[in-house]
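Handout, page 2. Input:
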Amino acid sequence: MNKTKVISYITVIVAIMMISTGMIIQKEEMSSTINTNVDLKDFKIQNMAASTNMIVKTVDNTDNISNVKQTSDTNANLVLTEVQMEIAPSSVIVPPRVEVYEGMTLEELAVKLDRNLGNGIVAGKGALIATECINKGVDPYVAVAILLHETGCRYSCSSLARTCYNFGGQKGTPGCNGGAYKRYNSIDEGLVGFIDNLYRNYFSRGLNSVESIGPKYAESNTWVSKINSYVSQIRAN
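Output:
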């Protein structure tokens, strides 16, 4: 082996020894700098939690606590525990309140009418009556008042209503049991026909008050006062 090769081998060996020595020294310095047993109470645990989805709790007994980071203190234990964060929607759409009659929504009007329809066959038909009246421009209080007076539906309704679903004493064909009064196939159909009759023959022609409807609807001189009495009761109930 010539002299040049010997010098090269020695140089390589010395370099390897120097690198190994440097790595050992660096590891010892890092070990002396980082203390893995540092007590978390030396840190501001509240500040650590403030920017994360963690909350700080004080507990008396930590024997059974799991999945938490814990720090001891002389009087109590502070623990960091993770909580599920909810993201609020960027915007919430609130539907507007639509009032259709005397400051009431359609739903509120339906509930009010139901309170006045008794326990007979029209009980619970407030939503149907309210919808039909508002859509056709018929006063719902007047319609219900006529229904209660002409058909007796505050209690059990008349036999004409119970047999042929005729409300308000409407005449026409097909006749109920061959008579002059019209027959309908269901309660809903009869109520819709009743309100449609009020619209076509009265409200659409400008007869939109009890006083203007009375002379054409009934021959009795007390009809107007009786209907107005019902209207007042409905409004107050």
